[in-house]
Structure of threonine ammonia-lyase:
Amino acid sequence: MITVNDIYNARETITDTINNTPILESTQLSSICKNQMFFKAEHLQQTGSFKIRGATNKVKRAAQEGSSFVTAASSGNHGQAVAYIANQLGIPATIVVPEDANESKVNAIRSYKGKIEKCGMTSSERLPRAVEVAKENNGMIIPPYDDPLIIAGQGTVGLEILEQIDHVDVVVVPIGGGGLISGILTAIKETKPSIKVIGVEPETAKDTFISLQEGKITSIPPTITIADGLRTTHPGTLTFPIVKRFIDDIVLVSEVQIKQAMTFVLQRMKQLIEPSSAVTVAAAMFDKLGVYDKNVVCVLSGGNVDIQQLNAFIVQ
């Protein structure tokens, strides 16, 4: 397992690339949720999501070790991040994306000079192909979540939350493969263990929820959810033990609740977040957290929305 020292080291590595993203507030959401609500705005991060943190930490290490090519398997945000930092370092990158990948994310990868290859619909299909591409090009695979350097990079979100808000009671984090939440858990629980960390998954993509119930990594069939960044079939072998050790709770939200939360944030806060971000807001709005009169931080993990699909994501 990584330690909080690994996260501090990651911050030193990535500080010249990432943004220290702001904390937003909403009086209306605080009233609705019966808590003082704060929002860690990773949708305003470089490349539009938290993924640039871990990607920068890992790709810089690849460059130090002499890699002249990198590849990644990604539904979009991780691929954008890898393509961006690889381009900054002058390293060619190929990103293996699902057949139904968000076009705005694919176009963004191309804008960072990343080559696109489409493969399957799930991470379990994309990852083996990404490994093959790396071998074919004598390069390095940049995993989306199951890697110590990736986890440590994502954990810098937790460090910033602790520094930006004087008193935090609860941090709410989306769960896909588990890189973000395992990094944040490490940063927070090794610094101030009294803070609760609650993970959120879509009801249709609850692989980590089920794995915790079973006490071991458990796969689920491929699923469909508008929160495409959370559409994994099982948690990571490195991330799951961290989640199992530190997590206080995991809650589930429906597709309708995700849409309603995303709509509220757009209409009332004037912030465009993607569905994967909206799960944390949904958990707070629809009383899933079970806490009241607390300082609650929802991590808004990304804001890369295909405008062509926006009508399908919001409540009219």
Notes: The radius of gyration is 18 Å. The chain has two domains: 4-48+147-313, 51-141. The first helix runs from residue 4 to 14. The beta strands are 23-25, 36-41, 70-73, 93-97, 115-118, 140-141, 170-174, 196-202, 249-253, 295-300.
